[in-house]
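Input.
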Amino acid sequence: MTKTPAHYIRWFSQLGIDDVPLVGGKNASLGEMYRELTPQGIKIPNGFAITAEAYRHVLDEAKAWPMLRAALDGLDANDVDDLARRAARAREIVYQAGIPDDLAQEIVTAYAQLKGEYGPELTVAVRSSATAEDLPNASFAGQHETYLNVAGEADLFDAVRQCFASLFKDRAIRYRIDNGFAHFKVFLSVGVMKMVRSDLATSGVIFTLDTETGFRDVVFITGAYGLGENIVQGTVGPDEFYVFKPTYRRGSRAVLRRSLGAKEVKMVYGEKGHETTRNIPTTEEERDRFCLDDEDALTLAGAAIAIEDHYSARAGHPMPMDIEWAKDGRDGELYIVQARPETVSSQKQQNVLEEYELQGRGQQLVSGHAVGGKIASGKARVITSVAELDQFRPGEVLVAEATTPDWGTVMKAAAAIVTNRGGRTCHAAIVARELGVPAVVGCGNATGTIKTGDDITVSCAEGDTGHVYAGLIPVQCVRTDLSALPRPKTHLMLNIGNPDIAFRTSFLPNDGVGLARMEFIISEYIQAHPMALLHPEKVDDANVCAKLKTLTRHHKNPADFFVERLSEGVGTIAAAFYPKPVIVRMSDFKTNEYASLLGGRWFEAAEDNPMIGFRGASRYAHPAYAEGFALECAAMKRVRETMGLTNVKLMIPFCRRIPEAEKVLSAMAAYGLRRGEHGLEIYVMCEIPNNVVLIDAFAQLFDGFSIGSNDLTQLTLGVDRDSDIVAFDFDERDPGVKELIRQTVVGARRNGRHAGICGQAPSDYPEMAEYLVEIGIDSMSINPDTILKTTRLVLEVEKRLNTVRT
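Output.
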């Protein structure tokens, strides 16, 4: 389409990222993407920018500059009333300046040309774009106005004037002061672009990193029904999806992880054009399903990766991005409607580890999404409306339904933030990250549970879920400069079972994961016994059957539910440490633990001593559990082959005899997990004395050994580790136990096999870690909370033995 030359108009096809002084960050980025990325198949709505020069022209023609300067002269930004009065006067001056005839004609002409491209029924989005927006240290998120679904020249002119005036919103003035921007050196451009009708579909936000930890190898997508404002403002709890970049680039197309959001309402248009939008409740069916299917999520991930790659190449260094997307309910297409550099998580110093830990406990009041990794305490201040903001005192914990950009001054003074609604990309979360304060969002009923004046502690240091506790609980913060910490020759790996902490834990110094436990994922994310999922007809309890049906309602069959949940949990851990090895232990529940799962009691026998009963390898090829083991194998095959996470090694626990090992390996091969194929390595736990006695024979079947010091100790000493009455005799440091460990290391080395340890011993006893280094063990898998201490100890021992890694 040929564009008519204009003085104050620039089409997106004429713009690039270097045009920020002319059209602001938002419009420059839209132009850059439209020009450079639409040839790659990424859809950007077309449009034009009314330049910052046009804004200056408006004020020049109206001779408004002296009045505007007078309105702000002597402003006391800390006086909320004074700020409100002066800001209102400034907006009035700008709005009343109107639009000069020459500019108006250019806008009319460009608008007609855009309608010529998209059709006479076109509506447009009119968006502010400040010339200082989207700098690396300031996001300007939500500071200026946007008007949606604008139709007709009169409404377009009004929206443009409102955008110009929004440069002097109270929040925008305060933001410029706080970030050191001069009021009259920041100008405003306005973007006019095809309206993506997400009111009829879905919209959301994408980050090309994990927003809580700064982990850069994932694309994090949030979405909800209707217009995107609800996600930005935290009015809804959105659906969330993660896609792993390295395997996506290699052709693996799978969602790494997902969670269903509440999506309580959706924003749609009212009946009076751009001035009216309204929230309507979503239906139960809408709330109970994801707003995006996997194909759409992967399409968005591909677009986000391409956008990040483009901006990184321009910058000459990695450039994580914050992207807005929308799906048009009319044409069914996915559009990128904004992209800017991510300004908080990407700025974190990854070499400095900050570990926050509660030094006590209080009653848990509410829980929600954790934002950041810190802990803060203070008196609660429940704010139910903007009119109450003047009651807030610095150092209090802000508790609210949700927050908006108008709350910026109060949020800056808060010790922590707690909201009823919102996901991890809502306004409260974005601002909390920028300010470096902990926030727990999407708590449900924080404003009803917490009262003004209550002493509370807000903890975001316990994984993805944040908690608010009663009382002022002491906190310890330990800072470690990891860049100054050498790596020992002995590989120090991590024990981990909770996917929620995987990304954060990956920043600890480590050589991978020596023990990834399935049990936490099964009990927390699946909750049901696998055999009960496969054979609900054997469950003789209508209530339990109903719960099983509810759990699996989003899947074609219960088996798909189990495989998806388990593979996503394990896949998240594997992705967090990729490409380092992640050794995943197949399920090692005991019968009493399996029986406690939903529906489990119909499939588990009562055993007098389940510790040495029907567990581990003995279950896998047994008719009572073979179908359940098949599901575990299907999940691990999906992790390695569909997700592409080939750094996963598998491990068989509690394998008593050689014939048992052969049966299990044969079953795994039949399920598509054949040792040696596609680089698959299979380890065995060395936790039964027979594993040590017959180590040469076991070494012919497995690629490595992982010593389970807990079980090896109990079976060597004949002590049931679950029995309190003989607990005094349970000691991994016993000479007999240490000798069996030594024989394992020697035997593994003799057979060219890996030898590691994943029991509690090196985490609990420094002298055991020292002993393991001395006998030349290949790796130790340590609990995350002791990895730094153990690393320093091992370095000291290796220095003494003159074996420090080069």
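The longest helix spans residues 294-315.
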